[in-house]
Design brief:
Helices cover 70% and strands 7% of the residues. The protein has one domain. It has 6 helices and 3 strands. Strands 1-3-2 form a 3-stranded antiparallel β-sheet. By secondary structure, the chain is mainly alpha-helical. A hairpin with a 2-residue loop joins β2 and β3.
Length: 138
């Protein structure tokens, strides 16, 4: 029974990440299509403006704001760690995310935070594990 619950929590976390990635991919596609549309008109200044608009659309107007209000969980976690002057533990990160209004669909959101931290630490190297359950940005 416990194994099924753990598997369900893990799958839920992966599903959340995939939904977030889908949103990012859709934004990137729209931005690139805007660039292509502007390029086809043959205006170099318009192309550079379209490219800048596309970059802003993909990256968000205010990166910190986007990270906290609807971006991916790892982006919100990095935002919390960026604002901190010291390494934070899993529970501290979760509390700050919750206080910032991050919505979780998982039945165990603190576990989701822990899993995202571990996975991203291994795949991208950020954030960095600085101790047992303690994380920081380089």
């Amino acid at each position: 029974m416990k194994k099924n619950r753990e598997r369900r929590v893990a799958y839920t976390s992966v599903i959340q990440d995939l939904y977030a990635k889908r949103v990012q991919l859709n934004q990137a596609i729209e931005a690139l299509e805007a660039v292509l549309n502007e390029e086809s008109r043959g205006r170099s200044s318009a192309t550079s403006q379209a490219f800048a608009a596309a970059e802003q659309k993909v990256n968000g107007g205010s990166r910190a704001e986007a990270e906290e209000t609807g971006g991916t969980l790892i982006a919100a976690i990095k935002s919390v760690l960026r604002r901190s002057d010291r390494p934070l533990g899993n529970a501290e990160i979760f509390r700050q995310l919750k206080a910032a209004g991050v919505k979780f669909r998982s039945s165990n959101p603190q576990l989701s935070v822990s899993q995202v931290l571990s996975r991203n630490s291994k795949t991208s190297g950020a954030p960095v594990r600085v101790g047992r359950g303690r994380w920081a940005l380089q």
